[in-house]
Amino acid sequence: MVKTDDRKKYAVPAVSALLDILEYMSEKDSCCGVTELSKELGISANLAFRIMKCLADRKYADSNAGQYRLSTGFFTLGMKLYSRFELRRRARSHLEVLSDNVHSTCQIQVPQGNHMLVMDVVTPDAPFYIQVVPGSRLNYHCNAFGKAVLAFYSEEKIKDLLPARLPALTPHSITARSLLIKELVKVKKEGVAFDKEEYNLGFLCIGAPVLDVNGNAIAGIGLTGLSNLFPPECHAKAIEQVRACAESVSRDIGYYGDYFKRNS
User: Fold this and answer.
1) Which H or E run includes 218?
2) SS3 for 17?
3) Could you tell me which of 250, 225, 217, 47 has the C-alpha nearest to residue 148?
4) How far apart are CA 168 and CA 201, in angstroms?
5) Which long-range contacts (CB under 8 A, 24 or more apart) does 159-164 make?
6) How far is CA 45 from its chain centroid?
7) CA-to-CA separations, 2 to 7, 8, 18, 234, in angstroms, rounded
8) First CA to last CA across the chain, in angstroms?
9) 193-223: per-residue pLDDT in tens?
10) pLDDT by residue (tens digit) across 155-185?
11) What helix, strand, coil percent values describe the chain, rounded to 5?
12) Which of 133, 95, 97, 98 lies closest to 117 in space, CA to CA?
């Protein structure tokens, strides 16, 4: 729980006023004027005007003759969050099946800016396993789940997203963006990506893309295990199960293409 003193210490009056306005306007069917907002919320008319002007300029509010109404901009943001939470819900059962099949930690990651975000994790019923913390933000380039997503990006987008020299997290990390782009061609063709001790020594990750209704890669899904528990002779079966999981989740969210059939 946040202490009262801490709330005062970190308070940002303009942000608080913005949130008050949003909460107030979201409950109203009619438009609001600056005078009404100032009177009802106890904020200055000048601050209310500046906030509403900014919201209108950023397309989060519609303005007409000094009257304001929240626009579809907030609906768009809400749908983005809804899609993310819906993806997590729909992927959960498939992750559980995959974890049972491969006896390893399984996870789904989604792109968030210049990192991948761990959305959900399922751990196996085993005496030991790798713990991955949901909410963690990880690099793209040495991450099987990040590679699975990057493989569907254009080369221009990848260059905008990643620097030419990539950080080396282990001696096995790819550090040249040009070499990573070459690897991503193979990832997209085969439908599976690897992290063979590129992020952490002793760890192996196998990831595959989750595709939306338009065929865009919106997540990477797969397993994370100890390298010594996945000798090369076990890779083929694990790869098949990761691909099957990615296809199941993709179908569950509306993908009807033949990408997984072409790469099976």
Assistant:
1) strand 217-226
2) helix
3) 217
4) 12
5) 161/114, 162/114
6) 38
7) 7, 10, 21, 49
8) 50
9) 999 999 999 999 999 999 998 899 999 999 9
10) 999 999 999 999 999 999 999 999 999 999 9
11) 50, 20, 30
12) 133
Cα–Cα nearest to 246, from 193, 168, 174, 177:
193
Furthest CA-CA distance within the chain: 72
Instruction: Write the DSSP string, 129-193.
Output: -----TT-EE-STT-HHHHHHHTTS-HHHHHHHS-SB---SSTT---BHHHHHHHHHHHHHHT-E
The two structure tokens encoding residue 129: 């396993």
Instruction: List, in sequence order, every residue forming a beta bridge with 193; answer none if it has no partner.
Output: 207
Q: How many residues does the chain have?
A: 264
Q: Rounded to whole angstroms, what are the CA distances from 140 to 25, 95, 125, 174?
A: 39, 21, 29, 11
pTM summary value:
0.71
Round to whole Å and give the CA distance between 29 and 73: 16
CB atoms within 10 A of CB 50: 15
